[in-house]
Automatic annotation (TrEMBL):
Molecular function per GO: cyclin-dependent protein serine/threonine kinase regulator activity
InterPro entries, A to Z: Cyclin (IPR039361), Cyclin-like_dom (IPR013763), Cyclin-like_sf (IPR036915), Cyclin_A/B-like (IPR046965), Cyclin_C-dom (IPR004367), Cyclin_N (IPR006671), Cyclins_cyclin-box (IPR048258)
Keyword Cell cycle appears in the UniProt entry: yes
Residues of the Cyclin C-terminal domain: 209-314
Species whose genome carries this gene: Microthlaspi erraticum
Domain Cyclin-like: 116-200, 213-295
GO biological process assignments: cell division; mitotic cell cycle phase transition
Highest taxon above the source species: Eukaryota
Keywords, sorted A to Z: Cell cycle, Cell division, Cyclin
Similarity comment: Belongs to the cyclin family. Cyclin AB subfamily.
Protein name per UniProt: Uncharacterized protein
Amino acid sequence: MDIQFESAILERADELLEEVILSWTLNLLRECETEAKNLCPTLIKTLEYDVFSGTRAAASKSLDIDSVDKDNDLAAVEYVEDMYTFYKEVENESKPVMYMPTQTEINEKMRSILVDWLVEVHIKFDLSPETLYLTINLIDRFLSLKTVPRRELQLLGVSALLIASKYEEIWPPQVNDLVYVTDNSYSNKQILVMEKTILGSLEWYLTVPTQYVFLVRFTKAAISDPEVENMVHYLAELGLMNYETLKFPPSLLAASAVYAARCFLNKRPAWNDTLKFHTGYAAFEILQCAKRLALIHSRVGEGKLRAVFKKYSK
């Protein structure tokens, strides 16, 4: 077969595959239009613009996002790609399961109330973002293994916060402080016993790649300005409150938060080669999760759980 002819066939095959993927992507977005009329119209319009005008190909080359840190020993630029490859390989080992069917006394709403309260406590003690994400990870992993009565759900939450704080913070809150924020609902001894129970059940497995680990890397890949970065973290923390996001791997949630934030703020293209390279996801792979985050965002004003909204509205 003539080399030029063969090359033309292969090129056309690639074009057809891309057209199929883009068509599928648009159909996927339109499936949810009836369910969520207010579901981030910018998200849909931006993708359609990218598809039909060709701006999705605006960034044809992946940028070296670590060049600015080459003289920073703490950035570990020689190893950072290997580190994140490893994080993605092991992230599912510490991913909770969809545990609500096995819980007899708690439900999704109770979990949301707990996370909302923990966000407020997290702000009160001025803790790091890593602590919040690890706290929620510990709670969900424990609930994946053990049935917890309703009266002990807050105890689980505050004990998980204690563990995460000891792991991440230089100056973690004291147990007495945590007793106080629970309005003395639990004693020092109860918190310490639950702490030991959690650690034993999880076999002291605390070094896990949470969503925050990926958010740091992916916002850097997006070369985000403060507005975009703020929106990314806002959407990600809204996602923490929603039980349904447990079905997604942490890296996918982080990538979806970046994608949805760029769509909300009308950043074109919403996804590019640099983001695809560093996240490991093409745009069509994150659409389902991005729609979930957009839906959660659209409902923020409907409920009473507004800790994340208040945090990011300042």
